[in-house]
Amino acid sequence: MTRTPVNVTVTGAAGQIGYALLFRIASxxxxxxxxxxxxxxxxxxxxxxxxxxxxxxxxxxxxxxxRGIEITDDANKAFDGxxxxxxxxxxxxxxxxxxxxxxxxxxxIFKPQGKAINDNAADDIKVxxxxxxxxxxxxxxxxxxxxxxxxxxxxxxxxxxxxxISQLAKKTGAAVSDIKRLTIWGNxxxxxxxxxxxxxxxxxxxxxxxxxxxxxxxxxIPTVAKRGAAIIEARGASSAASAANxxxxxxxxxxxxxxxxxxxxxxxxxxxxYGVPEGLISSFPVxxxxxxxxxxxxLEINDFSRARIDASVQELAEERDAVRALGLI
Length: 329
Ligand SMILES: NC(=O)C1=CN([C@@H]2O[C@H](COP(=O)(O)OP(=O)(O)OC[C@H]3O[C@@H](n4cnc5c(N)ncnc54)[C@H](O)[C@@H]3O)[C@@H](O)[C@H]2O)C=CC1
Ligand SMILES: O=C([O-])CC(=O)C(=O)O
What we know:
The protein is of the alpha/beta class. It has helices at about 15-25, 50-60, 75-80, 100-120, 135-145, 160-170, 205-210, 215-225, 225-235, 240-255, 305-325, and strands at about 5-10, 35-40, 65-70, 85, 125-130, 155, 180, 185, 195, 200, 205, 265-270, 280-290, 290-295. Bound molecules: 1,4-dihydronicotinamide adenine dinucleotide (NAI) and oxaloacetate ion.
């Protein structure tokens, strides 16, 4: 059976994440090895030439699943009929810049893009916001798309999730594939909370196995939460290939589901679960089935976790209030 190509729109296509992302989308890693794709690349006028160069390279790969590439600086065209939108284009944080500084710089990008998605995308649109501050940018885009169900707007915390798995694997000597049920709570920022209290390492409870609260508090959590800054410090540029990889993982899981007995982390509009105010786009543990995610319910939250979740959620509430004051939502 010949499948209809899925329209995938990528913003910031000429940027460093875009360069790492597009080839993997075109080779079938985003949706599946049997799903053809049309790529729509949105850039600002200064980025169009570089995006055309990337499109030439995509052509040169002769990917069997890649059915077409369109490049534009017009958001209405870029999101026309889009089934999946990866909102990557943003003003990246540079050394010494705080996330708060990014709010006003990026709000102007995500408001019009949300409207363009609202007016042009396909009915089944799924949106992943990668560009920082990702959670609040997702909130801004969602607020400008009243005709689209709110839960279709998600923010990326999968890179944090993957980073946490990797750190826990190193600490315990386990394979990354042995680690399950890890959770990132809250904001994709230094306040995020990587939670191992419900995680499993080869079937054993991770917190009990590690049995070292000082390591959790003083090493694990800060290493994961500040990894983005550490990469900037080391590379002189923010994470790109790992961020692209996480974006692929996020959408692949959203479309194809979580494995039995496991879950993942996604920034999604809160329904009030775990005391996170309704509407904030916060990271939660989620399972996915048939293209729909659900928050994992009934997890016991200890005092150690409660304080950290609350702190990150508080930051999200402050970001929401700031963009509200700027008239962006
Ligand atoms: N959520 C996460 O885990 C992560 C998020 N990020 C964020 O992803 C974003 C992109 O990072 P990079 O690719 O490294 O940045 P980059 O600066 O290399 O590329 C950004 C691209 O976006 C384009 N752009 C800017 N405004 C645009 C608009 N209105 N429409 C379309 N394109 C536009 C620029 O021309 C540029 O080509 C940054 O905000 C970064 O902080 C990065 C790593 C992880
Ligand atoms: O801080 C940045 O711009 C990059 C980022 O989000 C990360 O690596 O987690």
